[in-house]
Specification:
Largest sheet of chain B: 4 strands, antiparallel
Helix content of chain B: 40-55%
Helix content of chain A: 55-70%
Distance between the termini of chain A: 17 Å
Strand order of the largest sheet of chain B: 2-3-1-4
CATH architecture of the largest domain in chain B: 2-Layer Sandwich
CATH topology of the largest domain in chain B: Alpha-Beta Plaits
Shape of chain A: globular
Radius of gyration of chain A: 24 Å
Oligomer: heterodimer
CATH class of the largest domain in chain B: Alpha Beta
Largest interface: A-B, 68 and 73 residues
Shape of chain B: elongated
Order of helices and strands of chain A: HHHHHHHHHHHHHHHHH
Largest sheet of chain A: none
């Protein structure tokens, strides 16, 4: 195996595929590398992240408590900007929640084996982002105790929800997405929880991992159904992941507001969601792989592949921005034209140009191989992507401030409670992610093993007889 | 090896192998020897092992298809009933059964039902959760989720005969063979 060192980004794909796992090529080395962070004491930085997360989470509790006490008047909402940060933050988080299922489902169906190193953490990120997203629609309704009116439940008023409303579609889409993502994630986890069970030193951890691993015993009669189920869940998740952000975009696109009422919204939102999701995966995994010494499993090549996805989707998003402008001009609709000129040069021009800089210009750095394989550059660029995508949703929502009648125009600015609620969801996110890193295998152990060359039952030379270069890594047994 | 054990409390026999290639070839031989109640245990799904064991394709997708379609039906029926009977409401002058508007919810219900069907049918087909299994009595079996590969042959198999089966498994390359006891 030609894997000298930790850089696998320079393999010529025509010559030989770059290895997905570097370092020692044994199964137990993979188990060790992933299980060690859970079994040994947590690093200091973990406590810092958890501490900050818990502080912000407490802040979220206070912000929501005060909101329930006082009502949505504590936010900066007004008429015409009746949708403020709540929907901006909702779309921001749900967008981030797209990369996990995309990595686990779409890349699985496309047989992209490199997904195995990153799918577990990305799916966890998805789940936690969906939880953060769900905070906003839940709390924004004002009378939160009547939230169950969303659900089609028989009630004494003989009233039913309006199924022709995109907000109701959204309710179904996001709750289905959260549920299916959880089931998909848990299915993938079962074999790895069994690994943790079998390694457990204490009775408590054996009992807990044992309980959640459902008595998994690696039986091939089970693997057979498991693999089929996994394929099915991937096939179900793929249209689902594309549908969710399409439906989120319907919240805007089915309205009559200039700048919102466009057919480009569904694909444009989906591309933006994948873009922001991969940005967040990079933000999380670049530090994680260093802190937990997983550079040989989450290799430079994995980061490079993600950078390429960011470049592609960022450019698609840039195309959508340009096409929106073109259509506004081409439609000949003066309201539409005004909405876009106002976005770029009106009161909120700074938000628009922040969005363009972060989302369209930043990813172009990744045309350079040198930059996209430099983890510092990648990390900083991924932060820019996160910021840019938040601003995209802000720019779209703030279009409301200049609607049809100049007499009803107003400006919008967030209040303290808007900001503290948003920061609070970061607390929720980082708390959940920190707990995930501590107690759950952050890399899909069984899946990574299955893509190693030694996992092939014909590895002993049935296929490539004379090519001894391929066999050099086979050191165990 | 626990040769003193009485066969009446023997659940079966467990053979350990070191690599994916070894278990693959061993499974082919166990299959060809005509055993029926046996299994392979691997830390990850080994490619092609289903054929090596002679397993038929999983029927799980059919269950998912049927339940998924029932989700499609439920979503359609729910919206049809709500807007045609339970709560008639004219919106934008559209017909009560404005089916294009019902597509998102029908789609989501189909996916949701299918996903639950997948999870419950995998549990049903695999008879999981089952937290207590005789095979967990083996200390060496803890490596089955790490880097070792096992074949288990149950004593319930008509061809099972403790010493001869053990010899057979050693003959096809098992590194270690042990009897697994079952509590009576």
């Amino acid at each position: 195996m030609a894997s000298a060192g930790m850089d696998n980004s320079n393999f010529d794909p025509l010559d030989e595929r770059a290895p997905l796992v570097l370092g020692e090529q044994t199964f137990s080395a993979i188990t060790e590398a992933v299980a060690r962070p859970i079994e040994s004491a947590a690093p200091k930085i973990w406590y810092i992240i958890l501490g900050i997360g818990l502080l912000l989470l407490a802040n979220l509790g206070i912000s929501i408590g005060y909101l329930f006490w006082q009502g949505t008047g504590i936010w900066g909402l007004n008429i015409p900007v009746a949708w403020g940060w709540a929907i901006v933050n909702f779309v921001f988080w749900i967008g981030i929640g797209h990369a996990g299922t995309l990595i686990s489902a779409v890349l699985y169906l496309l047989r992209q084996k490199w997904r195995t190193s990153i799918n577990r953490a990305a799916e966890a990120m998805t789940l936690f982002a969906v939880v953060c997203a769900l905070v906003f629609p839940t709390i924004h309704v004002g009378r939160v105790w009547l939230l169950y009116w969303f659900a089609p439940l028989p009630n004494q008023m003989a009233m039913w929800p309006n199924f022709r409303s995109p907000l109701l579609w959204d309710f179904f889409a996001v709750s289905t997405y959260g549920t299916v993502s959880l089931l998909f994630w848990y299915t993938g986890l079962v074999p790895d929880l069994a690994t943790m069970r079998d390694r457990s030193k204490t009775a408590l951890s054996k009992a807990l991992y044992g309980f959640f691993s459902l008595g998994w015993r690696g039986s091939n009669r089970h693997w057979q159904h498991y693999e089929r189920a996994y394929l099915l869940l991937a096939s179900l998740s793929m249209p689902l992941v594309l549908s969710v952000h399409s439906i989120v975009s319907f919240d805007f696109a089915t309205s009559q507001v200039p700048g919102w009422h466009t057919t480009i919204f569904p694909p444009y939102f989906v591309a933006g969601a994948i873009f922001s999701g991969f940005g967040m995966v990079l933000t999380l995994l670049i530090p994680c792989r260093v802190i937990y010494k997983l550079e040989h499993i989450i290799t430079i090549r994995h980061l490079e592949n993600m950078a390429k996805v960011v470049l592609l989707t960022g450019t698609l998003v840039g195309y959508a921005y340009a096409m929106e402008f073109f259509i506004a001009w081409y439609s000949g609709n003066t309201y539409e034209q005004f909405a876009f000129i106002n976005r770029a040069f009106g009161n909120y021009w700074w938000a628009y140009w922040t969005m363009i800089t972060c989302n369209v210009i930043t990813p172009q750095l990744f045309w350079s191989k040198k930059l996209r394989t430099n983890t510092t550059v990648l990390f900083i660029a991924s932060i820019f992507v996160n910021i840019g995508m938040w601003f995209e949703r802000f720019v779209i929502t703030i279009t409301l401030s200049r609607d049809f009648l100049p007499s009803s125009w107003d400006t919008y600015s967030p209040t303290y409670w808007d900001i503290s609620t948003f920061l609070g969801t970061f607390g929720l996110f980082f708390t959940l992610f920190a707990l995930f890193l501590r107690f759950v295998p952050q890399v899909a152990i069984a899946e990574v093993k299955s893509v190693m060359p030694i996992a092939d039952p014909h590895h002993h030379g049935d296929h490539h007889g004379g090519e001894s270069a391929h066999e050099g890594a086979h050191a165990h047994g | 090896m626990a040769s003193t054990a009485t066969t009446s409390s023997t659940w079966g026999i467990l053979a350990e192998f070191d690599s994916a290639a070894e278990i693959f070839h061993a499974c082919e031989k166990v299959r060809d020897a005509g055993f029926a109640q046996w299994d392979a245990h691997t830390p990850f799904p080994v490619h092609g092992l289903d054929d090596a064991m002679g397993l038929k394709a999983s029927k799980l997708p059919w269950v998912v298809l049927v339940v998924g379609l029932s989700g499609t039906f439920t979503g359609t029926a729910l919206q049809y009933w709500v807007h045609n009977y339970a709560y008639k409401l004219v919106i934008s002058g559209k017909p009560y059964f404005a089916w294009p508007a019902y597509v998102p919810v029908i789609f989501e219900m189909s996916i949701l039902f299918s996903a639950f069907a997948t999870i419950f049918s995998i549990m049903g087909f695999c008879r999981l959760p089952r937290w207590n299994h005789p095979i967990f009595g083996s200390k060496r079996f803890e490596k089955a989720s790490d880097d070792k590969f096992f074949i288990s042959i149950e004593s319930a198999d008509p061809k099972f005969e403790a010493t001869r089966t053990a010899e057979f498994l050693k003959g096809i390359g098992a590194k270690h063979v042990e009897l697994v006891e079952e509590e009576a």
